[in-house]
Design goal:
Radius of gyration: 28 Å
Number of strands: 4
Strand content: 5-15%
Order of helices and strands: HHHEEHEE
GO molecular function, one term: endonuclease activity
Strand order of the largest sheet: 1-2
Distance between the termini: 33 Å
Number of domains: 2
Shape: rod-shaped
InterPro entries: MutS
Helix content: 55-70%
Length: 131
């Protein structure tokens, strides 16, 4: 979906640039005459407003919607970030508890894509259910 919006955004920039170029053509030129119906349609279109809104809400370089795109999105991402920080703290506590009786060499956990895992030595893995 974000890729589609970014494609539309690039198309709108191109159309706006095209309109600006047509405005610079002398009225008697052949190309202007052929393009005048399209030019009239595009002239009434408010490119700047739409482009400013999409620029405000998206980052096409990284293909993401920005938090400021909506209040709900900002709240959801903020809550998600807090939850991930809380989860990280819990995993650090678990890793520390395992470390104390010798279950691992040092208290640590790893992030494997969306998953977070507490590192446990093979000799102590029978104490845990593997998920």
């Amino acid at each position: 979906m974000i890729q589609d919006l970014c494609l539309i955004k690039r198309t709108l920039w191109s159309a706006r640039h095209f309109v600006e170029q047509l405005e610079d053509f002398p009225a008697e030129e052949y190309l202007f005459e052929r393009c005048s119906p399209l030019f009239e349609i595009l002239r009434i279109f408010n490119f700047l407003m739409i482009l400013e809104e999409t620029e405000f809400c998206t980052n096409c370089k990284f293909s993401v919607f920005l938090d400021r795109a909506s209040e709900d999105l900002e709240l959801i991402r903020s809550e998600w970030k807090r939850n991930m920080e809380n989860l990280e703290l819990v995993l650090i506590q678990i890793a520390t508890r395992i470390f104390q009786p010798g279950g691992i060499g040092k208290p640590l956990f790893s992030k494997s894509r969306p998953r977070m895992c507490v590192v446990v030595s093979a000799s102590h893995s029978h104490y845990f259910q593997i998920v």
